[in-house]
Amino acid sequence: MKNILYNVKRNSFILISALSIGGLLASCSEDFLDVEPEGVGKGEEFFTTPEHARLAINSVYGNLREWNVIAFAHLAVTTITSDDAAKGSVPGDAGFLDEYDNFTITSTDGQLNGYWNGQYQAINLTNQVLTNVPLIAMDAGQKERILAEAKFFRAYHYFNLVRAFGGVPLRLAVPLPGEQEDPATLNIPRASREEVYAQIIKDLTDASQVLQPSYSAAERGRVTKGAALGMLAKVQLYQRNWQEVINLTNQVEGLGYNLVQDYYSIFRISGEHNVESVFEIEAQTIPGNCGASNSQWAEVQGVRGQFGWGFVEPTQNLVDAFEKGDKRMEATILFRGEKTPEGDVINPDAPNPRYNQKAYVPSFVTNECGYGKDQNIRILRFAEILLIRAEAANELGMTAQALADLNRVRVRAGLAPIASVSQEELRKRIWQERRVELALENGDRYFDLVRQGRAAEVLQAQGKQFKAGVNEVLPIPQQQINLSGGPLTQNPGY
Question: Exposed (0-12), middle (13-18) or buried (19+): which is 397, by Cβ within 10 Å?
Answer without folding.
Answer: exposed
